[in-house]
Amino acid sequence: MRELVILSGKGGTGKTSITAAFASFSSNMILCDADVDAADLHLLMAPDIQQKTDFQGGNVAVINHDKCTSCGLCIELCRFDAVKDNFIIDPIECEGCGVCYDLCPEKAIDFPIKTCGEWYISDTRFGTMVHARLGIAQENSGRLVALVRQEARKIVQKKNIDLILTDGPPGIGCPVIASMGQANAILIVSEPTVSGIHDLARVGQLADHFKIPAMVCVNKYDLNLDQTQAIKDLAKEKNIIFAGQIPFDKNFTESMIQGKNIIETDENSQASLAVRKIWENVMAQPAMNIVRLA
Amino acid sequence: MIISIASGKGGTGKTTVATNLAFSLGKNVQLMDCDVEEPNSHLFLNPEIKDKQAVIAPVPLIDEDKCTWCKKCMEICRFGAIAVVGKKVITFPDLCHSCGGCMAVCPEHAVSEGDRELGDIETGSIKENLFVQGRLNVGQVMSPPIIKKILTLARDGMVNIIDAPPGTSCPVIAAMKGADFVLLVTEPTPFGLHDLALAVETVKILKIPHGIVINRAGMGNDGVKEYAKKEGIPILMEIPFDKKIAQVYSRGELIVEKMPEYKDKFLDLFDHINRLIKDPGDKGAGFK
Questions:
Q1: Distances (CA, A) of A30 to A19, A158, A161
Q2: Cys-Cys link to A20, which of A44, A91, A122, A136 (CB 3.0-4.6 A)?
Q3: How far is the C-alpha of A171 from the C-alpha of A10, rounded, in Å?
Q4: B90 touches chain A (CB under 8 A)
Q5: Nearest-CA residue of chain B relative to A101?
Q6: Does B12 contact A59 at a Cβ distance shorter than 8 Å?
Q7: How many domains does chain B have?
Q8: Using one digit for the tens of pLDDT, what is the confidence trace for A15-62?
Q9: How far, in Å, CA of A234 to CA of A245, rounded?
Q10: How much is the pTM?
């Protein structure tokens, strides 16, 4: 089993469009959408949901006012200012630590499990896809990311599939860290802008921190050739493998509107050929050819 | 006044709107970059940084002389940050949420708190305006405490502009809570629309007045406009899909500096926001 995770640091550089395009190049893979906060891959994949499961993300404290004596201990103990003066707990502020629940002298606090989202196993025209939806304003996106990846691994093992293609979240925090552990390598989709480079450097550092091999490709490279060169220089300096560059192409947006990937729209366009080249470069890397036990 | 600039989807132009709006207003502004995983505003505003402070989260320290291995700390911890194995206590600071439960529950008073650095907050100025940004340390997971700390630096009597992180979960909530207005930046594509709708749901839960900026207007379809009309959300500004703007951005420059005709558009945007804060139903402000 092998897994490639597509990341970017900066949002909106083209992670999902490129992940979707890669799906055209492999017949023995499954897709995993690890951007559970703002998942978009399903918009290109038209998933036919086969299995839907609630995500129990944690617990939330609720005060039972019949038992509460307003002693104030919970207000004193809560580090997250979730207990308001009228002894009502703000579920958005509640961290789910359970300290008030455990220490209330009147046992007046309940601590029910809350459903924080859903995850799905779906059929798509490219094969199986595991994806999820975190509820609005919910926590624990890192745990949901870990869960969809774990489910993808189970399916891979059962069906003897070769590769997991994971569309990752933006940033470098909790969900990103949850999306990359145990992966063979990450491919960072960058763009030739000062922000793109700044954010690439931070994801590169993160990959280095967790000892995961990193590659980079530049989307819309022709927007600014100096910045594209700067990305190549940075990649060289930081031991990030440069996997290729893609020209600006309005087909990315056009394909999105049609619910397709760019390969399906026109497999011979400059952008499609460039994406294919990047795919070949990525899959030829030694890091992508280490088969792990799932 | 606090205006939080958010989006759901990443890369729609939050930083573009935040920095150009701040620069257009010119005075009495504080820009607060709360995208602590990937702070970018500084690249466009070149602030003079005057101070830098670490953001520290408390994590447990165990006094082995007092500990009786009763395991109460391990039992209360919902984050798996403490393990008691035989006569040994192991802590995992990276998993700790700093709830203080272990310290509160320990009958022997054997738990005290040490420091874990999550990141830092830098403060400085851009001419006569103020600048604050947070930065999560690489490898750390907890960004909300840094964002919450930045928000304590909001100044009364100033226009505080927050550059929020993407998404809809805890870091975004932290960067929206307490705002007088949330400006949602989107692009007119299916991805932009899908994530805008998630962001709108988030703002509605927090009950904050909000409006939309369409960036790269003309690149995709009319889905966002149809959605805004249906939901009754005002579209306060459209920034066209223009290669020149993309190039200005790519070099780390401000649109309003290179294309001064945009300054009035950003001032209009601010005027609309002001009117909507006073009267969220103000039909003159962006409703079409």
A1: 11, 12, 7
A2: A44
A3: 6
A4: no
A5: B76
A6: no
A7: 2
A8: 999 999 999 999 899 999 999 999 999 999 999 999 999 999 889 999
A9: 15
A10: 0.95
